[in-house]
Amino acid sequence: METFSQQVKDDIIRQELSERRHCLQAELAAIIYMAGSLHLTGREKVSLSVATESAGIARRIVKLFKATYQLEGQIQAEQVGKLGKLRRYRIIIPAQPSLNGLLSELGMFSRDNLLENDIKPQLVKERCCQTSFLRGAFLAAGSVTDPNKKTYHLEMVSSNEDFVNGLVYLLNILGIKAKVVQRKDKYVIYLKDSETIVKFLSLINANIGVIKLEEVKVIKGLRGEVNRLVNCETANLEKSLTAAWEQVEIIQNLSRSPVWHGLPEKLRITAELRLEHPEASLKELGELHHPPLSKSAVNHRLRMIRRLAKGE
Q1: What are the residues whose beta carbons fall under 8 Å from the beta carbon of 264, sequence distance 6 or more?
Q2: Quick one: average pLDDT of 114-139?
Q3: What is the DSSP string of 135-179?
């Protein structure tokens, strides 16, 4: 059964690629930063591999290489995990001049052919490219918990601290406040607030995730309101029952005293009805009178009985 993260990512990868090359570059760059590895294959020659656990994401990455730089990627499937039950897909781009051009244009190689860790500003100059970059980062190394769980949580993981700081800055530009925590040799960018997560998923066009989150928020809100009302009603009921049994005890004590015989008839009727119906509410007790009494009238009579019992 698919996890909520997988459902969200499947929704994204089913969407057509953008027709804007600069947006495709931004998405591809984020994927390479988050899940790519460079391999030296000779003098100043490198190959590139990108790993993912999703066949759908692997196909999207191949499309991105083809659409942006006419590079053909080969997908290799690997058995991983205990007993090889899990699969990892690796997209291989062999050493070639076009690959060097890609790495340079995406800001991953400096003019001196050194690896760069910072996000190239030109890649995320426009808002559409910024959201595309976030989409790529989430597809490559992001996850979001099922909103039906107690807490909301979305995170993206990278081993590159400089890149993570750049990604947090980009999120801030888009109005999303993210936090970072280190787990061993990894840096985790995370969001905990449901509204912030909805905003992030909206930016990257994860529409199914947004709809599901909003639905669950409404259901949780209704459930919380129902629980509050039930708790309030229960508390009121317990309070009413406690008061009723106190009244019964007072009336029983009063019935054994001389005061009882001189009790006005209207008070005696109310007292006897309370003894006969110890769990009735004031409203129900009033309806048992002939003619019926209001809640306030019944309450007034019971207060008079209490005062007489105390000798006031």
Answers
A1: none
A2: 88
A3: HHHHHHHEEE--TTSSS--EEEEES-HHHHHHHHHHHHHTT---E
Tell me, yes or no, if the pTM score tops 0.90: no
Q: Which domains does the chain have, with CATH numbers?
A: 4-205 (3.10.28.10), 222-309 (no CATH)
Q: How much is the pLDDT for 182?
A: 93
Q: Which residues contact 117 (CB under 8 A, 6 or more apart)?
A: 160, 162, 163
Whether residue 243 has pLDDT greater than 70? yes
Q: What pLDDT was estimated at residue 260?
A: 79
DSSP letter string, the chain: ---HHHHHHHHHHTSPPPS-HHHHHHHHHHHHHHHEEEEEEETTEEEEEEEES-HHHHHHHHHHHHHHH----EEEEEEESGGG-EEEEEEEE-S-HHHHHHHHHTTSB-TTS-B--SPPGGGGSSHHHHHHHHHHHHHHHEEE--TTSSS--EEEEES-HHHHHHHHHHHHHTT---EEEEETTEEEEEE--HHHHHHHHHHTT-HHHHHHHHHHHHHHHHHHHHHHHHHHHHHHHHHHHHHHHHHHHHHHHHHTSGGGGG--HHHHHHHHHHHH-TT--HHHHHHTSSS---HHHHHHHHHHHHHHHTT-
- pLDDT over 90 percentage in the chain: 38
Are residues 153 and 144 in contact, defined by beta-carbon separation less than 8 angstroms? yes
On whether the CB atoms of residues 201 and 176 are closer than 8 A, the answer is no
